[in-house]
Design brief:
By secondary structure, the protein is α+β, with helices and mostly antiparallel strands. It contains 18 helices and 14 strands. α13 runs antiparallel to α14.
């Protein structure tokens, strides 16, 4: 039976008047995608000048590689805005490409040798150099090909009025921000318990180009020459093959409280690792990594969901969380959907809203090391074998069939779909949940099954994804932005270059001092 940390709260916020506070939910997306050349190989060209400075532009930057674009939507309380703005970013960016395409899938295109994957260059300032050295370190530690994997992140927060009402309803003591942080961490723990639903419903990376393996052996069978696949896989991106930091397997970062979480991250950026020490931090004047510790920065810690806070004085992430508490959560499990031009479909955000609300309201005891192993195993099974007909997951040390567990979670989420529909009007959330629920018993309707079928029909992962990449990029290029939107993006490009130039002109102090100050 579904248990809540405050039973009256669900009923209270389900009433139309009280539900209106949920209209203040703030959302935003971050979407990564590779630039590829006409042959479908990783682009070796610099970041297009027409996209602005990747160091200072607010919406268009790069992640690891010079060829790995990252699009960021401003936070908004309008639920329609993030995808609308993301589409505008795609249209503007596609029109700046000269004979290149936006790669449609999470798993990368044809890759050459690891050393030929270009690391992003952000300029000459200390801040720019810091970002580049950090990426050098990631490549040194984990290999550059792992850093070419792309995904989508969903940023989500509840409004201050909601927290005041919930605190009052729960008769909670203590400071308001402590209550907010505590409840966000409860949400995070529950997400780690139930987040396996996301790769099942939305995973879209069941196959890879063989070049990604860089000559390593793999247990994945061959779909066609040049393509490896998981017959029942949903998200190889989230598997041990993909963006999983196996070197961090023994790094225990507890989410049982804000204090435990931030203390673990602080310790990790200050605890030397013998292997990283052997690799070395510097070679003459060239920096190879920022430090030889378990983590270079807190951002290196990989997690499917993270608590976030924007520091008021530019503090490090853990320090900002310690000082000000949790501001929002970043959900990081979405694969890119190669079947759509912007990689994200509307039902993904709608589902995430419902799941995150359920995770917030549901009772959320501390996660033991035994339960954490169970959570990790469930995610591993779903990403590798999610569409397997007889799939079982672990629940309280017992094997249970996947489909009944998934249906039970949809039952548990129903009140929160109703709650959001009471807030926004209509039945959009409930209808979306009904539609998505059919994927439990119809695994062939999932994106991963559709991508696998397309790869099989089109002669492999590369041929299929290249065709979609060309089609989507050309479609985006053919759709003109309205005059006002185009002017806004053009102005942002000019401003970003001016901001980078000002930063470089005003630079003072050595890079060594800049790095030392970061860790101070």
């Amino acid at each position: 039976m579904l248990k809540f940390t405050c039973c009256d709260a669900v009923q209270q916020f389900s009433e139309h008047a009280a539900a209106q506070v949920l209209r203040g939910i703030t959302r935003g997306y971050e979407r990564e995608c590779l630039r590829v050349d006409r042959a479908g190989k990783l682009a070796q060209t610099p970041h297009p000048v027409g996209l602005g400075s990747k160091l200072t532009h607010p919406w268009i930057t790069t992640d690891y590689s010079e060829a790995l674009l990252e699009f960021i939507t401003p936070p908004s309380q309008d639920p329609e805005f993030p995808l609308q703005f993301l589409r505008d970013i795609h249209r503007f960016s596609a029109q700046q490409l000269q004979g290149e395409y936006l790669w449609a899938a999470s798993m990368p295109c044809v890759l050459a040798q690891d050393k030929d994957i270009p690391i992003a260059d952000y300029g000459s300032s200390n801040a720019a150099r810091f970002k580049s050295v950090y990426r050098e370190g990631l490549g040194l530690r984990y290999g550059r090909q792992m850093q070419t994997i792309a995904g989508a992140h969903y940023n989500w927060s509840l409004p201050a009025d909601f927290w005041l009402a919930l605190k009052d309803c729960c008769c909670a003591k203590g400071s308001g921000q402590d209550f907010v942080s505590e409840r966000y961490f409860g949400l995070i723990r529950n997400f780690l318990r139930y987040g396996w639903l996301i790769p099942y419903l939305f995973g879209a990376s069941p196959a890879i180009c063989e070049s990604f393996l860089q000559g390593r052996s793999s247990d994945l069978p061959e779909l066609v020459p040049g393509t490896r696949y998981g017959p029942y896989a949903t998200s190889l991106r989230m598997s041990d093959l993909g963006y999983q930091n196996r070197a961090q397997a023994n790094l225990r970062v507890s989410v049982n409280s804000l204090a435990e979480y931030t203390q673990a991250l602080e310790a990790a950026i200050r605890t030397p690792d013998p292997y990283y020490e052997e690799l070395g931090v510097r070679e003459g004047t060239r920096w190879k990594q920022l430090n030889a510790c378990l983590l270079q920065t807190e951002s290196e810690f990989y997690a499917g969901i993270r608590p976030k806070r924007i520091g008021k004085l530019g503090e490090r992430p853990a320090k900002a969380l310690q000082t000000y508490g949790v501001e929002y959560v970043e959900m990081r499990l979405f694969d890119l959907n190669p079947l759509v031009d912007i990689g994200i479909t509307p039902e993904q955000g709608l589902f995430a809203d419902v799941l995150l609300l359920m995770c917030l309201f549901r009772d959320s005891p501390p996660i033991t090391s035994r339960e954490q192993s169970e959570n990790d195993e469930n995610k591993r099974r779903v990403v590798n074998q999610g569409r397997q007909p007889d799939l079982h997951l672990l629940a309280h040390n017992r094997e249970q069939a996947f489909r009944p567990l998934a249906h039970e979670l949809f039952d548990d989420m129903q009140p929160f779909a109703e709650m959001l529909d009471a807030a926004y009007g209509g039945r959009r959330y409930q209808t979306t949940m009904q539609d998505l629920r059919t994927r439990i018993d119809q695994p062939d309707s999932t994106p991963s099954a559709q991508v696998l079928a397309g790869s099989r029909e089109q002669g492999g992962f590369f041929s299929y994804t290249m065709q979609l990449s060309q089609q989507h990029t050309q479609s985006l290029q053919a759709t003109a932005l309205d005059t006002g939107t185009l002017a806004r993006f053009s102005d942002s490009v000019v401003s970003s270059w001016q901001d980078q130039q000002r930063l470089e002109v005003a630079e003072h102090g050595s890079f060594d001092d800049f790095v030392a100050q970061y860790y101070a």
